[in-house]
Design brief:
The complex is a heterodimer of chains A (227) and B (305).
Chain A lengths: L1 H13 L1 H28 L5 H24 L4 H5 L3 H5 L4 H31 L4 H24 L3 H24 L3 H6 L4 H5 L6 H21 L3
Helix pairs in contact in A: 1-6, 2-3, 2-6, 3-6, 3-7, 3-8, 6-7, 6-11, 7-8, 7-11
Chain B lengths: L1 E12 L2 E12 L3 E5 L6 H8 L7 E6 L12 E4 L11 H11 L6 H10 L15 H13 L5 E5 L7 H16 L3 E6 L2 H7 L2 E6 L2 E6 L1 H7 L4 E7 L5 H14 L3 E4 L2 E6 L4 H11 L4 E7 L3 H8 L4
Parallel strand pairs in B: 3-7, 3-8, 5-6, 6-7
Antiparallel strand pairs in B: 1-2, 1-4, 8-9, 10-12, 10-13, 11-12
The chains are: A mainly alpha (227), B alpha/beta (305).
Chain lengths: 227, 305
């Protein structure tokens, strides 16, 4: 599992798309943090976590899912399609493969968020651990969902298509719950991480639990799949 | 101990039964060759045993374990139609896949394995620059690096040049002599005949026949050929008597210059032939017994191949 997660982690950092996304994430975080710092200097003390990390949090909430899907939608589907997966499955269990990939993707996003937050903390002169936790759990949910879609898809193009749809639908439905009072939409909000991001960090274990359930389903689907 | 034990294993894709209720065993130390035409179901069968595809029904055990995940570090697999991580070097490929298997090979082990398959000079080369034959050899290297007790080779020599095919056959033989059990598929009769100690013939998703080479040949009652080199001077009368005897006893025979070629059913027919020739005062220079190849057996009988 560790060898697979390390491979996944390193591979993500090697891709141009990943570098662009990390630069965008860090740039947005730094830009908003600098603006917050300027406001603080002009209008007095607004040294709260929310002001400094607004750029990072907003980028993650609006684009986080999309970023995760763009980078990792094909982590299983493409390997199954081009048959490199055949070497993996006869070396280790399918469970280890999916868990290794989930760990690799999550570690990549933890590192990316950490890089952004370290830069923000240089401006704010403090580290925002709560934001780090929230973003990490949110992106873990994204990684698990990407793996679910990837294990369901037969081709990389299929997982990209469904990944983009899901990454648009998930935030759209979550924001719709604010305005639409239909019962099923209200229920859906409890299944996405958006609802919990607005609550205290005490609710983050629920997002973790949802992510683990999605990961377990992905493993079960992948175990039944012919390669 | 049965290294592989398969019970009523089947696989269907939609309505098509590709593997149809196979039951078989492979003993320790055997080189089991699974033979059949393309599309006979050989790869599907081996893919089920190695965890690449799931069976529709039936069961199997490897090395006494029915949970294949428990023995993955004790088996080696060369799957057919596989791709490689082209950005990796041969060295890194072996290291990466060994680690996945929970085996952390030293530099010496990796280099020795590459040398075993004749890729020592390509260890730093990226796989995108590898030829098909080189990738096949690397596939074998990743299968044998952890010295597995059981080795699955799906078409190990298909698509490789003659020299590489000979090297691979020699390697399989060497691995077997070191105690490894080998299960391989092939559609190449000569290959299977050269190296396998037991052969299963697959046809339409079922094992049509199974046994050692000799058993299969006996089953299909294939004849042997005795080639006898005789002295150059045979008088006409003696020749007629010999021909009459051969016609009565063996039916199928031929003369090629001073060679008498006779189809016999068993080795015991040879002394009968020699006694007859000596009685006719014919000088015998040499006697060769030629067994039919597997290809001749099955082509002649129109069995499976």
């Amino acid at each position: 599992m560790w060898a697979i997660s390390t491979h996944e982690f390193k591979n993500l950092f090697k891709s141009i798309k990943a570098i662009v996304i990390v630069v965008f994430l860090t740039g947005m975080s730094l830009l908003v943090a600098s603006l917050a710092e300027n406001f603080a200097n002009q209008f007095g003390d607004i040294n709260t976590e929310g002001h400094y990390t607004a750029g990072l949090s907003a980028t993650i909430i609006f684009f986080g899912m999309l970023f995760v899907f763009i980078l990792s939608h094909d982590t299983i589907s493409s390997e199954a399609q081009n048959r490199t997966m055949r070497f993996l499955v006869n070396k280790t269990s399918r469970r280890s493969i999916v868990m290794g990939k989930a760990l690799g993707i999550t570690l990549f996003w933890l590192t990316s968020v950490l890089i952004s937050l370290v830069i923000v903390s240089l401006v704010a002169k403090q580290f925002f651990f709560e934001t780090f936790l929230q973003c990490s759990v949110f992106l873990f949910y994204g990684a698990c969902t990407a793996l679910l879609i990837s294990s369901l898809s037969k081709k990389g193009s299929e997982s990209l298509f469904f990944g983009i749809i899901v990454s648009i639908l998930l935030p759209a439905i979550s924001f719709a719950t604010v305005f639409i009072d239909t019962v099923w939409i209200q229920w859906v909000k409890y299944l996405t991480p958006y609802y919990y991001m607005d609550l205290s960090i005490a609710y983050l274990p629920i997002v973790c639990l949802l992510s683990i359930i999605i990961l377990t389903v992905s493993i079960k689907i992948f175990e039944r799949r012919d390669l | 101990m049965n290294i592989i034990e398969v019970n009523d294993l089947s696989k269907s894709f939609g309505n098509k039964n590709v593997v149809n209720g196979i039951t078989m065993k492979v003993n320790k130390g055997e080189i089991y060759g699974f033979l059949g035409r393309n599309g006979a179901g050989k790869s599907t069968f081996i893919n089920m045993l190695t965890g690449i595809i799931n069976p529709s029904s039936g069961s199997f055990s490897l090395l006494g374990e029915d949970k294949i995940d428990r023995v993955k570090n004790r088996i080696g697999v060369l799957p057919d139609y596989s791709s490689f991580y082209d950005s990796m070097t041969a060295y890194n490929h072996l290291r990466f896949f060994s680690r996945i298997q929970g085996f952390n090979p030293t530099k010496e082990i990796i280099e020795h394995t590459l040398e075993t398959v004749g890729l020592e000079k390509a260890k730093k080369k990226k796989l995108s620059q590898f030829s098909f034959g080189m990738k096949k050899k690397l596939g074998i290297a990743q299968a044998i690096i952890n010295e597995p007790e059981l080795l699955f080779l799906d078409e190990p020599t298909s698509g490789v040049d003659v020299e590489s095919a000979i090297q691979i056959k020699e390697l399989i033989d060497k691995l077997n002599k070191n105690g490894q059990t080998i299960f391989m598929t092939s559609h190449n009769l000569n290959e299977v005949e050269d190296i396998c100690t037991k052969i299963g013939i697959m046809k339409n998703g079922e094992i049509h026949s199974e046994g050692t080479l000799r058993e299969l040949k006996t089953t299909y009652q294939s004849s042997l050929t005795a080639q006898i080199k005789v002295g150059p001077a045979i008088n006409k009368h003696a020749r007629q008597e010999i021909d009459q005897f051969l016609n009565n006893e063996f039916q199928q025979f031929d003369w090629e210059d001073n060679r008498l070629i006779v189809n016999i059913q068993e080795e015991d027919d040879i002394p009968v032939l020699i006694r007859m020739l000596i009685n006719k005062k014919i000088d015998i220079y040499s006697v060769h017994l030629i067994e039919p190849t597997l290809e001749e057996v099955f082509l002649e009988r129109d069995v499976a191949i």
